[in-house]
Specification:
The chain has 156 residues and is of the alpha/beta class. The protein is 41% helix and 19% strand. α1 packs parallel to α5 and α3 runs parallel beside α4.
């Protein structure tokens, strides 16, 4: 699938944030939220640094975007994240009423947008999010692969 140029630039911003997470010895996941094609929220994994299991890139980006708009509703916004969101993160995106999520790589262990679960497709929920996958997938996969190879190498 081909995406618009601003979709690629938004995902590349998320990838730069994932690289920051990598440099801080965090699982390299980055997220940005846009409104009218402008980034209004950013986040990268800070679980280890903050000693907080909820400090996922998506949650931090949602918090920043809500602060930027001074509104809990992020209707009209798009999220770009380097790894398929987990149950917690897609739940937060639904509660925030984000319109769409673009993610780079599938997460076969805990992904909730098609891999393990497909929460956005649940008709019982009162908000639907459009899901797009595969944008800049190779870059994201490579970053995750390098990170986990380093971690495993340091534990041997």
């Amino acid at each position: 699938m081909l995406f618009e140029p601003y979709h690629y630039s938004s995902m590349l911003s998320a990838i730069r944030l994932a690289e920051t997470a990598y440099e801080n010895k965090e699982v390299p996941v980055g997220a940005v939220i846009t409104c009218n094609k402008k980034i209004i929220g950013k986040g990268y994994n800070q679980i280890e640094m903050l000693k907080d299991n909820t400090a996922h890139a998506e949650i931090l980006a949602i918090t920043a975007a809500s602060a930027s708009l001074q509104n809990k509703s992020l209707s009209g916004c798009e999220m770009y994240v380097t790894l398929e969101p987990c149950i917690m993160c897609v739940g937060a995106a639904i509660l925030a009423k984000i319109d769409s999520i673009f993610f780079a790589s599938f997460d076969p262990k805990s992904g909730a947008c098609g891999s393990v679960y497909n929460i956005p497709e649940d008709n019982k929920l009162n908000h639907k999010i459009e899901i797009y996958s595969g944008i800049c997938e190779d870059i994201s996969k490579d970053l995750l692969k390098r990170f986990f190879e380093e971690i495993r190498g340091n534990n041997n």
